[in-house]
Specification:
Number of domains: 3
Number of strands: 11
Largest sheet: 5 strands, antiparallel
Order of helices and strands: HHHHHHHEEEEHHHEEEHHEEEEHHHHHHH
Structural class: alpha+beta
Amino acid sequence: MHITRLCTKSRLLLQCANRATSDVNIKKSFLHNHRLGYGSRLKFKLTYLGFGLLGSTIAYDGIINEFTYCGATFRFIRSLKTASLIAVDYILLERHENDKDYDNQLSAVHQRSANRLLETCLKNGGLYIKVGQGFAAINHILPKEYTSTLAKLQDECLPTSRNDVQKLFHEEFGQLPEKIFAEFDYKPVAAASLAQVFRGKLLNGDEVAIKVQYSDLRKRFTSDLGTIMFLQDIIELFFKNYNFGWILRDVRKNLIQELNFVNEGKNSEKCAKDFENFKYVYIPKVYWKYTTTRVLTLEWMNGFKISDMEQIRRNKMDLRDIDMKLFKMFAEQIFKTGFVHADPHPGNIFIRKNPNNGKAELILLDHGLYEILPEEVRLPLCEFWEATVLRNDKKMEECAKKMNIKDYMKFAEVLFQQPISMNNGHIKTKLTQADIEYIQEIAKKNFDLIMNTLKEMPRNMIFVVRNLNTVRAIGRHHGDVVDRPSVMAKHAQKCVNKNFNSFTGRLQWFYRRCIFEYCLWRNAFKIRCLNLYFLILYKLGRAPKEATTLLQTFPFEEQS
């Protein structure tokens, strides 16, 4: 009996224990399932909230900022993608450095990279195009694949819409263009990096060119400039031979000047005053009543680009006359006035034919970016140029020190853009491909010295060098029919001796002028003889074809 009761109690306790365990398992299962459901709902809510915040941010950016920050993000991603592809291309190329066709592979990589940069600049527009144009101008340093490809940015900028133009006019003048002008053609005659130009007519009948800034340019300027500076810093980090970041940092402050069209109008008038004695140079008149910080109205002038060889031939104009006037015009700015046009690419220099004498007249456009050379820089520069022609090394070194430049010989090669130091050595009657490659290798080694020289020179000389590079390229496009260094050297020497007003001073000037002219002739004769020497060797089959353009390779210093 007692045993039976004990068994019964044991069974009851066991059943209770099983129920308790079952209840605990049920509770655990319930809590587990509850937690899973809560976690899923939480993730869903967070995802929903994230998309909501993203959508709200985009909507806010669209309504308040017209998608300024969204556009900046897309441009940053696009630029980062381009930079990454270019970097990978060059990194992979390093594996084939010892291949026989390495030069061809390198040229192909240069071209692919240049095409990617061109596409990115065109899609991003604005400041990207301006920077691309700047790199195209340094054609004495960058590979030709880059300069020839990026040069297309001078003509392939994308025009904006009619609505954007009307919006900007309403913001600047409070009314539409057709209410201000008697005629306004919404089809742009030119589209540049920062603005586009339209043709119109004032109420008094005067034909005008209306330069209109892109409506979103100022909003995106800071973000785009930050992106460009960030990417070039990354490039400098991975590519130790990249040497152009300092140029971007130096010109950053000058880009802001170009956003103010009132400043451009004032520059235009000052330039016109400087050239009032140059009867063949024309600067369009500014109509201040129709000019603001983002709209510039100028006198309309018919003409064509100085690089348009077909039009030059069709008008039977003399290339030598054109280039002589071009070089004298910029020599006047560099050596005398010190007020230097910093962006003289072919799209900013037009020519027209004088109906009376058939001679060329130059029209200088786009005065947004100027550099001022103070007398303490300009006078040593004139003296340095004269001393270089006279090959007075002591005077060259002395003048270079005044401009805080150590390697005066490399500085001379930067300015003249031709070999200055030519050592007299054994004249070879045959040049092998190895000889050519050796000389080109010397030129490559001089690259770092040239870049260091550019860094040493006064900051306001950077744009002067750019001016010289661009003008040199125009002369090269015309076939180098005029000896540019000699023309500019004569102007520099004239500025050095401008204060010799006494009779004795004039005699001294005449004597120095005769010596100077002789040295100019001697140097030019030496270059012509070397070019002829290389050409004869090539014609006789004793030198490869590359020898005929050897003296055009820059930087270059002939070795004995």
